[in-house]
Amino acid sequence: MNRCQLSKPGPCALLHDLGRFGHHGAGYAHGGPADLHAHAWANHLLDNDVNAAVLEFSLGPCELRFSHGAWVSLCGAAEQLHIGGDTHPSWQSLWVPARERLAIPLPRQGLRSYLAVLGGFQVDKMLGSASMVAREGSGPFGGQALRAGCELACLRHSKADGPGPRATPADFRPDYSAPLQLSVLPLPTAECRISQLLGGTWRVDPRSDRMAVRLKETLVDIPEGAGRLSSGTCLGAIQCPPDGRPLILLNDRQSIGGYPHIASVASVDCFTLSQRRPGQTLRFRQGTADEQRERLLRLVDFFALG
Amino acid sequence: MHEHFHCFPLGDTAFQLAPREAAALNPSPRLTRALTVCAQQLRGEYSADILDCVVAFMSLTVHCRARFTTRGDLPERILAVFAEQWTRAADEKPVRLVEIPVCYGGAYGPDLLRLAEHSQQSPDSLIKAHCGQLYDAYAVGFAPGFAYLGFVPKALAAPRLRQPRRRVPAGAIGIADRQTGIYPLSSPGGWNIIGCTPLAMREGSGGSRLQVGDQVRFIAIGEAEFLSLGGQTPHFLD
Q1: Rounded CA gap, B36 and B85, in Å?
Q2: Which terminus of chain A, N or C, has fewer Cβ atoms within 10 Å?
């Protein structure tokens, strides 16, 4: 067995495959990568199964070694990585020789970087998935962020087994510092007009996490929440708590919520949203159901996500 | 009944079956049964394409594979299955009664005094009112094993906190509007906390002590009994 030793995990290192399904009714979050786009590219560059477990690093710096050589790919926030003394751009497949140091520096933009290894990280699954949800304490390693010194099992490969040099075309590498406009659809049941979302500029609040991105600014027309019964949530649901500061729900969101749900952000926009740092600005635009679905299906079909 | 419901897209990978006007209807054990069986039937019919079904009070949320959402007739199909199950759900009775011991007030229920003042009654009479009736489990969710129980007497109803607490401990009993529930694990939360139970609400891998459709009764206990039942002194963070 090839062992990956994580000497510096950074502030929050988690394993994620596509997530846990079939347990939402008992209250388990779907989990899965906050940025599915970067996660899927990391597996794609190695010809991995789309559901292979990948390491999701928040910020950095991070450092690890493999007991035997390994093919890896790093996609997402980090623009580069170091293997031994050499520096390489991210978004490509790379061979890491045995016991050589792989270092991921603190990215200049974005929040999360995805490190895939050929064949995926091998862990005991929970609820049929390798995904870890810290808030629930569910998944491998009790769902808690991986600690320094932790070891992960990987398959053993030789350099000849690899996919060879492959890279994501420049057009598909997002610029996480660019202004972000999110496509939103109002809910037929929304109690307030979404025009107030569309007009303004919004900033990401530092208290954002994998459960939700919180916004700093306040809605003027706060929908009445009193007396509401909880109902199912979804990825990208924009909820409005009584303090008027909208929440945009991400992968570790609760299955059911009671705050008024006023509109939904397109799934594909949630992936890039999850890479925005506190203080970065967002705008909203009115989307259509067809446009949101088409953009999602383009991603789903390209990576054969099913 | 089904004519009062509609089914609409929730985000780009889910659909929700819900009342057109929530205020015009009330949750009931019969509606819960109809939605639960509707969910089971849909999952059986479309096992490859429906990933998850979530029943909550008067709604059913169906999470699908992205490709499946392009099926234009899915909302009508969900409505039709619901209509059929509503008719069948008329004669069945709830099956389980679950008793939950609770240590109320003090460090166990930081919002109890405020709720008692708000409803112009003594803390003891609030506790008696909370224990004095049976509740139906109308939903399990928000967190693994979190059961939403209805409904507390009108005098006990209280809106959610303006800003959620950063940490509510496992076992905390909360009130939000006319719902009451038990936090199964420590998490952020916006409910008014009146007490804590020493019982674990999560069971094994993927399980929950309470299930949608159960009946629940709360029983007041003292601190000594709370600790002897294995409870730990709770820790809240605003």
Answers
A1: 9
A2: N
A21/B51 CB distance under 8 A: yes
- How many whole angstroms separate alpha carbon A53 and alpha carbon A129? 9
Backbone angles phi, psi at B79, to 5 degrees: -60, -40
Long-range CB pairs of B70-78 (<8 Å, 24+ gap) are B70/A293, B70/A297, B74/B7, B74/B15, B75/B6, B75/B7, B75/B8, B75/B9, B75/B15, B76/B7, B77/B42, B78/B7, B78/B15, B78/B17, B78/B38, B78/B42
Residues of chain B neighbouring A132 (CB-CB closer than 8 A): none
Inspect the interface and report whether the beta carbons of B16 and A231 lie closer than 8 Å.
yes
Phi first, then psi: give them for residue A285, nearest 5 degrees.
-130, 150
Beta bridge partners, A248, equal A213, A238
CB contact under 8 A, A305 and B66: yes
By Cβ distance, the residue of A225, A226, A300 closest to B67 is A300
What residues contact A298, with CB distance under 8 A and at least 6 apart? none
- What ipTM is given for this predicted complex? 0.95
Tokens (6 digits) for A67: 């007991």
Residue A258: list chain B partners with CB under 8 A.
160, 176-177, 179
Whole-structure pTM value:
0.90
Q: Do A297 and B14 touch (CB under 8 A)?
A: no
Which of B53, B57, B69 comes nearest A25 by C-beta? B53
Residue of B nearest to A227 (CA): B177
- Per-residue confidence of chain B (238 residues) as pLDDT tens digits? 889 999 999 999 999 999 998 888 999 999 999 999 999 999 999 999 999 999 999 999 999 999 998 888 999 999 999 999 999 887 777 678 999 999 999 999 999 999 999 999 999 999 999 999 999 999 998 788 889 999 999 999 999 898 889 999 999 999 998 889 999 988 889 999 999 999 999 876 667 889 888 899 999 999 999 999 999 999 999 8
Q: Tokens for A223? A: 């929908």
B233 exposure class (CB count in 10 Å sphere: 0-12, 13-18, 19+): exposed
Q: How far apart are CA A194 and CA A214, in angstroms?
A: 17
- Smallest Cα distance from A110 to chain B, Å: 24
Tokens of A170: 């420049």
Under 8 Å between Cβ of B12 and A289? yes
What are the structure tokens assigned to B182, written together?
């038990």
| A222 interaction partners in chain B (CB closer than 8 Å) | none
- Cα separation, B100 vs A128, in Å, equals 31
